[in-house]
Design brief:
Elements: H1 2-28, H2 35-54, H3 57-71, H4 74-87, H5 90-116
Helix pairs in contact: 1-2, 1-3, 2-3, 2-5, 4-5
């Protein structure tokens, strides 16, 4: 039961942070390109890599599973990519895929390396 509470506590913070971060980034950088979602997901990739490498199991549940699970959003990324294919220059969809997958993987690896140094 304690594990589920840790996940729920992290998610309770992660979901509102995702929404706030997306709104702030989208307002600051208005564009057809989904900069808010990209920022959220790239940040989450780094945090998850770092936490999994550096933290004990309870913090992984709180921050990794709970916070990062609610903070990042694969479904929104996927929907926005499809929307970009339909209504924007198709290069935006390709850019969204490339940045999200390649930079996300690189940031997860960087987080892992830095977390492993602790």
């Amino acid at each position: 039961m304690t594990d589920a509470l840790l996940v729920a506590a992290g998610a309770a913070v992660g979901a509102p942070m995702r929404w706030l971060t997306d709104r702030v980034v989208s307002a600051r950088f208005p564009s057809r390109f989904p900069w808010g979602t990209v920022c959220v997901n790239l940040t989450g990739c780094f945090v998850l890599g770092f936490v999994v490498a550096a933290a004990a199991a309870p913090l992984v549940l709180l921050l990794g599973t709970g916070f990062c699970g609610a903070f990042t959003t694969f479904s929104t990324f996927s929907f926005e990519t499809v929307r970009l294919l339909e209504g924007s220059p198709r290069r935006y969809a390709a850019l969204n895929l490339a940045v999200s997958v390649l930079a996300g993987s690189a940031l997860a690896a960087l987080g892992w390396v830095l977390g492993s140094m602790l």
